[in-house]
Amino acid sequence: MAVESGQKKSWTMVQALNEALRRSLDENPKTLVMGEDVGRLGGVFRVTDGLHKDFGEERVIDTPLAESGIVGTAIGLALRGYRPVVEIQFDGFVYPAFDQIVTQLAKMHARALGQIKLPVTIRIPFAGGIGAVEHHSESHEAYFAHTAGLKVVAPSNPADAHWMLRQAIASDDPVIFLEPKRRYWDKGQLDPNGAPELGLHQARVARSGSDLTLIAYGPMVKVCLEAAEAAAEDGLKLEVVDLRSLSPVDFDALERSVKRTGRAVVVHEAPVFLGMGAELAARITERCFYSLEAPVLRVGGYFAPYPPSRVEDAFLPDLDRVLDAVDRAMAF
Amino acid sequence: MAPAANGGTADAGPPELVQLLTPEGERVEHPDYSLETTPEELRSIYRDLVLVRRFDAEATSLQRQGELGLWASLLGQEAAQVGSGRAMRPTDYAFPTYREHGVAWCKGVDPLNLLGMFRGVNHGGWDPDEKNFHLYTIVIGSQTLHATGYAMGITKDGSDDAVIAYFGDGASSQGDVSEAFTFASVYQAPVVFFCQNNQWAISEPTEKQTRVPLYRRASGFGFPGVRVDGNDVLACLAVTRWALDHARTGQGPVLIEAFTYRMGAHTTSDDPTRYRIAEELESWKLKDPIERLKAYLVREGWADGAFFDALDAESEQLARRVREGVRTMPDPDPSSIFDHVYAEGHALVDEEREGYLAYASSFASAAAETSDGEDD
What does the pLDDT look like over A97-136, one tens digit per residue? Predict the structure, then answer.
């Protein structure tokens, strides 16, 4: 899968992630990949495909089916000088590891007054839209972003997925790496021999516009780009900001955009109530109050458990719901 | 030397209790666990037991005097901690709960460092790698997984170091402890699980945690379990040495259940007279770990009055150092709450630090203006 430097070619997000893991394993002998089925099977989404064969079971570790154990032992390996990249098989399975993540992984560096580092990356295929059964479609980013000590990121396309994963693995801080599983098979241009265009925690203007800023991350970026395309037919110029990092948030980038457009709509899959949108709306209001032409609106999931897949389309924000919010914002 | 994995009930000591020194201080032999000691080594072990107990007593007093917010006393568990602590090499790593003051002592951690979190000036501010003694862990059992992961790393490094994970009878009910057993067994990790069964998890007796003796848990996970007299420092030393050797030579984990008793409260916040009877306490007093070693030393003529007097003086000296050290321990600067949240920094933390500093300095400016006004 290697390509010559300077050459971009088309990669799926799964391939881009796989290449990021491969290069990280190659570059640093202390990097480890561990999780359920990441070895011979190559992961249920094949993100770790071929790594077990090429790097061996000492580097690519099939673990017992115990999420707390996976994260807890990864902490111990990090204390011994390793850089574990943990895979949680599905979003809804991370909760058994929640204690290890928020009470141990997030806090240990501070408790040791900075004398130890916890370079653990936790990859979680997250969010819905693939017709899965219960516990396979959840958006739990707010839990992790709410916890000081964790960094939380969510790429939206193959190139970001690749570079952000390499940056996350290289980070000395624990990173929750949320992979939008409904975008796993989307394609995008990538040259893995190049260099990342942005820092891990910088937002990106995915589409420029002057009338309103759509703010999204992970799976919803594509929905927002489609909404902006549709709105353009009606003469409305929507800017789309791909947040990329949920902790820390690049508020400066949001401020720059919203001060220009005067309107903002935040879009995510997680329930609106106490979700990322609540924080983003509050901050934008603080920073851009005198530039705002309308209140910051939010589009997201409902305050209900993630629904059965036959009705998940009603739960997930789509192009129409985004445009409906845009209309409401423009009406002020 | 595979120890038997049967017999006994959860709350009973015998029949599988490894003992090398009886409660009366008589040296006995055990077919599986031999130990050679010199009189000098025995005096040194005795010194550790006495100093650790004196430190613990001083910390309890300091809590009563309001100098510490809380203290978790190790009274009664000195032998389990000193015995196992002394079995480690300096390069072996210990993952403690919050009561392993005696293990910290054996690893060379300054006792004053242990008091920071109990005084409320930090959450455990020592460098774990300096003496291979990890931070105290308050959530029950979490550290058994950290110990196991660390041990897995040792194997990857090709090193012959080993790890001890400390936990209590209450923690044995936690899923993390079972998961640690699973991982350690599957990966043959060089970790010794050292359970100090002190009979009580705050107010809950061991019967509320298990229906079988704790050391027998190990057999279901495929590694040896041993029950040792936790008030017998020599037995704890011998069994832990054997277990560490077993682990470091690639034979996988061992579970040691040190059968002991917490003589004091769970912490200075609880009242054990509400949940346990005085007779139980009295019966365990007869098994005191320090008295039995003293009886042995005296009977053999290996320690005289001058030795005990000198140790008394050293104990008081330690207590004074601890007392003065705690009372002069500086409070951290409030802005330090923003330090070390992240290794590489975080924009929001930086922003909030600046906001806090500006807010805090506004009081200083206001005070300066007020005093200027008074001068006028």
Answer: 999 999 999 999 999 999 999 999 999 999 999 999 999 9
Of the pLDDT bands very low, low, confident and very high (cuts 50, 70, 90), residue B372 is low
Residue A159: name the closest of A11, A323, A318 by CA. Answer: A11
CA distances to A235, A251, B208, B210 from B171, in Å: 64, 43, 12, 11
pLDDT in tens, B161-185: 999 999 999 999 999 999 999 999 9
Instruction: With CB atoms and an 8 Å threshold, state whether A113 touches B151.
Output: no
B342, B344, B348, B353: best to mutate for the A interface, most A CBs within 10 A? B342
Q: What's the token pair of residue A276?
A: 């990322």
Closest-CA residue of B relative to A112 is B125
Interface of B with A in 220-279 (CB under 8 A): none
Cβ atoms of A152 and A144 within 8 Å: the answer is yes
Q: Cβ A58–B153 below 8 Å, yes or no?
A: no
Query: Using CA atoms, how far apart are residues B1 and B185, in angstroms rounded to an integer?
Result: 18
Cβ–Cβ of A115/B129 closer than 8 Å? Answer: yes
Collect all residues of chain A within an 8 Å Cβ-Cβ radius of residue B344: 171-173
Checking if the pLDDT of B125 tops 90, the result is no
Region for residue B268 given its phi and psi (left: phi exceeds 0; alpha: psi -120 to 50; beta: otherwise):
alpha
B343/A173 Cβ within 8 A: yes
User: Between residues 105 and 124 of chain B, which touch chain A (CB distance below 8 Å)?
Assistant: 122-124
Reply yes or no on whether the pLDDT at B254 is more than 70. Answer: yes
Interface A-B, measured as beta-carbon pairs within 8 A, has a size of 144
Q: Do B146 and A80 touch (CB under 8 A)?
A: no
Angle between helices B142-157 and B175-186 (to 10 degrees): 10
Rounded Cα–Cα distance for residues B230 and B287 (Å): 10
Contact A269, A276 (CB under 8 A): no
pTM of the model: 0.94
pLDDT of B370: 72
Per-residue pLDDT at B221:
98
Residue A254: count of CB within 10 angstroms of its CB = 23
ipTM for this prediction? 0.94
Chain B from 325 to 344: CB within 8 A of any A CB: 339-344
User: Which residue does chain B place closest to A104, by CA atoms?
Assistant: B142
**Of B18, B12, B58, nearest in space to B34 by CA:** B18
Beta strands B200-201; A245-247: pairing state: unpaired
